[in-house]
Fold:
Amino acid sequence: MSAAQDSSRPPDNGPAGQPGPAGQPGPAAAGQSDIGAANPDELERFFEETVARDRRIEPRDWMPDAYRKTMVRQIAQHAHSEIIGMQPEGNWVTRAPSLRRKAILLAKVQDEAGHGLYLYSAAETLGADRADLTDRLITGKQKYSSIFNYPTLTFADVGVIGWLVDGAAICNQVPLCRSSYGPYARAMIRICKEESFHQRQGYELLMTMMRGTDAQREMVQDAADRWWWPSLMMFGPPDADSPNTEQSMRWRIKRHTNDDLRQRFVDMTVPQAEALGVTLPDPDLRWNQERQHYDFGQPDWAEFKRIISGNGPCNAQRVANRRAAHEAGAWVRDAAAAHAAKQARVSRRGAMPAGLRSEA
Ligand code: FAQ
Structure:
């Protein structure tokens, strides 16, 4: 369907800031807030209608600056989380107890790198610069998920991360496949498929350990005790303390509130814990017949605040590792840029008539 046929888009000959001919970005799509000759009210109305009709906002479409800023913030934090999230489990690659477990873990950690890369690309469609985003991560100016600031003490942590952390990520991210920003929503579809494999491998690993020795069962229980509360924090602060939820729900970036998703996660996870034979470390956890949901206790929100402001058990180590990897990779980026420049020179020369080519 062409943009002109799609009733969710203004015609191609619309004012500056709207899509140009043949899908070329209009001026605003390049990240400019100056909408030139366009009627700002009309653009805003068109944007609101597109969102209200559950149509996607695409990179070439006009969008309010605040929407663009929110999307860059959320996508960048998500990308950083995937990249930093490689570290806690990566810590166990060399010590996996069998070749099979090592192969599975390597594949999972590689998937996380891939997720980070899709997400940085999605942020670039909004005019963000990937080098700048990386810089914000390694200088502590941009957040990543609190969950990755806890240490992985035993191999059971690998299983519990798959079960609980990927389980929470799936709960949170499946609705994001319907997020209003097209590139983010599309990236999320593949990411969720891979997260689903990640969760199953974690559960299968824990099931194997629970069928093993007493010591293995104790390791699983200990890991579940340590990761349960941090997993609940992944959904963000309680709704009453979440500054972004209301506007993000209105823009249909988020489809559910933090507390709704947390409840969904608890309801989904309790029967899985029972099937595993693991006790979740919450004395307030019980089925509420009236609500048809589990009641549960609150995580330590003071701990959450400490972690997201950079003072968790592993924040400094995670960021230092990322910074070291970035600096050690500088020669690769330089070599790739030099190669790309050379290829561009060669193809420009190839396009020139022979008599005009310089030999230099
Ligand atoms: N950790 O107003 P809200 C994964 C920040 S990927 C750190 O509620 P919002 C895969 C929040 O950003 C996990 N910061 O904010 C994997 C905001 O920051 P600001 C990452 C947090 O955006 C598995 C401030 O607090 N997933 O696990 C956290 O509406 C295994 C106020 O909060 C995503 O990023 C937190 N837990 O809702 C990889 C999913 N919670 O404004 C490896 C996409 C909140 O100060 C191994 N993101 N903050 O800059 C989202 O759904 C949302 O951004 C929320 C937060 C739900 C995270």
